[in-house]
Design goal:
Distance between the termini: 24 Å
Strand order of the largest sheet: 1-2
Order of helices and strands: HEHHEHEHE
Largest sheet: 2 strands, parallel
Number of helices: 5
Helix content: 40-55%
Structural class: alpha/beta
């Protein structure tokens, strides 16, 4: 399950599909795609098309509140969170730190993945 944002979200979703898994996509708002970087649209469209299920939230704007609401909706469907996270605070509301905190608040198992030597852009 993923919001298929650019970066680790989409990379992980691609790996799941390549290994024969299924993908459930959560769309936080009607304007979510247009708020993503233009260079990510093709990947987003391919993953969206490959999804076995799409859960769309009833929100118009693609803002931090919508992104966090999408992540919370994702957590409601999940048994565990795998987070590619450097352990640092979110750059803005709805970032990885906020999603990890929401999962931990629900006593959901969280596995943090951060390769040795990796750095955040």
């Amino acid at each position: 399950m993923s919001l298929i944002a650019d970066g680790p979200d989409s990379l992980f979703a691609c790996a799941v599909l390549e290994l024969g898994g299924s993908l459930v996509v959560v769309v936080p708002s009607r304007r979510y795609r247009e708020g993503l970087p233009t260079e990510h649209h093709l990947v987003y469209d391919e993953l969206y098309s490959a999804a076995s299920e799409v859960i769309a939230l009833d929100r118009e704007e693609s803002d931090s509140e919508a992104h966090q609401a999408g992540s919370v909706r994702m957590l409601e469907e999940a048994d565990e969170l795998l987070a590619v996270w450097d352990g640092q605070p979110a750059r803005g509301y709805g970032g990885t730190a906020d999603v990890v905190a929401a999962a931990r608040d629900r006593a959901m198992p969280v596995t943090v993945i951060w390769p040795v030597g990796a750095t955040r852009d």
